[in-house]
Amino acid sequence: MRPQLVIVGAGPRGTGLLERIAANAPELYADTGLDIHLVDPHPPGGGRIWRQAQSPLLWMNSHAEDVTMFTDDTVAMDGPVREGPTLHQWAGVDGATFADRQLQGRYLRHVYERALAELPDGITVHHHPRRALRVSGPRDGRQQVWLAGRPRPLLADLVILALGHLDAELDDEQTELAAYARAHDLVHLPPDFTADTDLSPLRPGEPVLVRGFGLAFVDLMVLLTEGRGGRYEGDTYVPSGREPVLYVGSRRGVPYHAKIGYEWTGDRPPLPRFFGPAEVEELLARPAGFDFRRDVWPLVEKELGFAHYHRLFTAHAGRTAMAWADFEEKYAAAAGPAETRALVAAAVPDPADRLDLGALDRPLEGVRYASHEAFQEGLRRYVESDLTQRHDASHSADLAVFLGLLSVYGQIVRLGGVGAWWHGFFSYLASGPPGPRLRQMLALSRAGLLRFVGADMTVRAEDGVFRGASPTVPGFSVSARALVEARLPDPAVGRARDSLLRELHADGVAESPEGLLRVDRGDGRVLDTAGRPHSRRFALGPYTDARTSGAFTRPGTGGPAFRQNDATVRAALGILRNLAGRAAA
């Protein structure tokens, strides 16, 4: 019988795995038949999140030239490079375009179809448009993958879980809020994928409390304004009259930083410099393990600071008071944060040119406004300043920090679970919305349809309503009959609604402290509680402790997801080849 490989999930990650199978099979699996079963109720390529059947108003938050599904020589992998077009090259659009998600879905479908066409003879893909319910089978034997609406399981020699983002059961706080909403005829929309959320209960003209100021909020804002017939005339929003009034706050109280709107010129900072493979290996070798804040974050700070100052000194030397070679030597030798701060203060006269990650992370820390209206004006100034800086090449040290973040992310993936804070910090600085979205926020604010609540926003359920407040504006609160949690569901395995992951959790797989599925850092095999890798099951994606920033990435930046895909596929093909050889013998 031909070997059988089941891949659960046909979105970007599953598609990327097929691309790597097509690239590696000629070397590792020549002249051996293989059936690949791709399981996903959504169309292959885009999957659920990037499906073509969604609102054309929803954009990607990356320039079209910064989106690729194909490897290049910057990806540290053992498999062959198979170059291919970026989104903008394939679609024939301007590289600076923020494409809509429908177009990205078509691009992903192209990548899927190209991978199918490049598979060697004898390897066949079967798409099953169903949900995978559970996986069973012995550790060292054939697996059974049970599908919805199918009485018999798929038999699999190997299973790769590429499930992507999933729905989650409500945590204790969300459960209480939902119960309160039912008891008082309120609207409570828990963490969800905004494109899939029924927003019809949010009534025109009524206040809506929103917790979350990231990309999920941007989608919500778009669907409740332009999606309800409003339009923009320059910097002015013309309402349709069907919009609710959004009162938004979050932990930081500010939106994610805008995408940078200029091109890189000159030499890039030589990264990694202070946080590379050697440092990762040293951390992993520690018998007692490592702590992110104590052991990893200082390396991250040093690396991002190096990227920032390398650019400042080499591209904007007039704003420095020391030769780069002297600064670099002293920066490398600085024993701790205090020495580094003293060096920077001496070498960089303007405090605005110094990198302060703490202030970037919490810009409203300790800031107080006398009134709600004063805060509206203050935050509009903050957003306007951010837009100006992120589109001004005289601040190109920001872009260097972005490159540093990409380098750091590639190293942190190798460490496994490091906590949710890092992923949020990375997204806040490096994966924010397009500049035009922030300009739309400003227009909606001026129109009175978007109101800022502040940092450390609290929501209380009392007196038959939801009440939101923030220490940013002491004494101010707003009451509403609707509350939206504008963020993705928690990826913890133990709370996943997906029955397949729940069954794995019940079987006793290993979890990180954050509840993520632990996998082998080398090839993605699922680990048990004793740390042993499963011989027949692999997993990749945001619910694992090896999660990356995305399944596609910027060309020329190493693409950790591509490296993972290649390692997993090469390990899987090796196992399948050995199994086929045994069967033939």
From TrEMBL:
**Pfam family, any one:** NAD_binding_9
Q: Where does the FAD-dependent urate hydroxylase HpyO/Asp monooxygenase CreE-like FAD/NAD(P)-binding domain lie? A: 6-165
Q: Domain of life here?
A: Bacteria
The record ties this protein, via InterPro entries, to: HpyO/CreE_NAD-binding, L-asp_N-monooxygenase_NS-form
This chain's protein is named Adenylate cyclase
